Amino acid sequence: MTTPFIQKALDIQLDSGHWDVQEIDRQENILGPVDFGWQRYQRDPDVLTFGEGLLASSAIPGSRRLVFCGYSPQWEGFYISSMGGAAYTFQHVGVNYVSLRGRCAKPSVLVLNNDGQGVSVRIEPLADYQDIWRSYRDPDGEELIGIYALQQAIFDRWASEYHEKRVRAFVVGPAAESTREGTIGSNTVKKGKFRPVVDWCGRGGMGSRLLQHHNLLGCIFGGDWVDPHKPKARDTDPYFLEHFGDKGAKVDMRATVKYRYDPKIKTGGTFGVNLHNIRDKLMTFNYRSTSAPRDERARHHKEFIVDHYLKQFNEETIEPKNFDHCGEPCPVACKKLNGKYKKDYEPYHALGPQMGVFDQRAAEILNDHADAMGLDAIQIGGTLAWIMECVNDGLFPAEEFGFPPASEMEFKGFVADASQFDLVNDSMKNARYGIALINAILFDERAALFRQGIRAAGYELNERYPDSLPMERAVFLSHGENGHMVPNQYWVPGMGSPMPVMGKYYVYYGGGFITPAELGRKNVERMVYELVNDNCGICRFHRQWSEPLSGTIINERFGLEVNFRDHHFALAQQINAHEFGKSVPWETERMGELFFNYLEACEEDGTEEPGVFRWHHHKDRLLTAQAFWQAIRDAQEIAFRGPAEQIPEAMTPAGQRKSMGL
Questions:
Q1: Given a cut of 70, is residue 566 above it in pLDDT?
Q2: pTM for this prediction
Q3: Number of structural domains, the chain?
């Protein structure tokens, strides 16, 4: 039995406070929050949207991400960013999508509610938000700062208007006011109180866009509306039984072993599994480990990571099973905790080993402070590690920017022998140095240059210090005039690709050598299926079943006949065409080193691919790396031209058997 295909959009004009709810015409061909965001962005690039997927009211785990779309001031282009679990509460507002236009007269909070009869919208000014960021106490008397403080203050003022099980908020921090890289954060809520798990719309600076362009500090949302056609597990299990041979919960558990717990390696979550498997491909001390010999990298991983950093995590988090979820009922429980600290690989790598931090206590206070300030951990981690190397090596004077002297950190270079680096005390030293850098960048005018981001700061520093050229030590991707992104923390060429949206997983990031022609084709394929997940509001941790099956469920539930691969290939084509010409080749010597060191590592791993030798043995590393980048881009453009049939159809086991005539 099909469900009526009704989607509602809430359009809010922030300057006037006018709002209305409209049903979306079926002919608009909108299947989810990315379709909606992209369509609205094409009409008006000043708009910011957020919304849920079509399965948000279902019992399917992982289907309640809240997806934000709009212009990224950091990337200088259209961007998509999402936070886990938040649509589990957002669904009770009774609309699928929200679009924000204009600018509030004063810094304000958006209050969205639904009493079961209809939507209500208020814009509430919050004049004392800066004081709240500096210090605010929760009901138990604990002092909070930044994002955590603002979120608590918003709850204290307006949460009583909601049922305690159907309310949540998202907010920005101080970084959103003064940088391009501010995030949007949202703690999970249980019985009206915040839980330690924080979900992030982290990459792309969407928090900066929300505050600087729309003058919004955040949003509290929820309500009493319930989908009258809400499907239960018994309604969706038949799809999993038909296509995977088991009920949905069991299929999901098998598909998400990495994110829950992998008994083969006795760890779990992105932190545990990635740091176990990364071995000699670890990137530390601002990527300088990648230039070390293979045996030293392996020793470094064993002594610094396996025997200490990862060991602490396994003992404190994995063995006692300190797991939680993102705010929706999900058996994966991918959130790994130690007290109030949530541990994920990329934040605890960028604000960890990249900065010479290999101890959990040090990494906890560093990550917690960056989170409270509303900074993207990957972006700020890459920036701070670069600054630390420059200060340590005397490329520019620390005091000119209000930074502590080099003597207050331990960042002289890559070290493989743990006896030469105090894993506890030196890690804490570097973490405290990183916190001091964050505070200087955000609050000391001498460091205002760095608020423009790593790329703009690098160019300015090269002009000021032409003899030392500090920018050459930086690692970032370039887009537009000043757009930039510290790459995701995987040492593979795919993470440096010239795709229209970077900083996410819209690329192929498998290991080993792959030719640029093949990499470009695979990047486009991955963008298509990552768009399927984002547009369906589904967490990519569930992608083993979601990519081949979510389209089938949506088509049959709503009586549609959409080829999800073709639909999202067309969407990828449109985004790429709009962003075409903005990607800039790798700009720094360190980027060239990363590329060449990776090729050398592939040779050491015994690759027999002849292409690696053709690319590796050249004198000018950066020029050769840029040629490789251009070859990726050329291959991507061929793939984007289509047809859609070049993209392999994602298939369930049942679909594979059918295609083979079995």
A1: yes
A2: 0.97
A3: 3
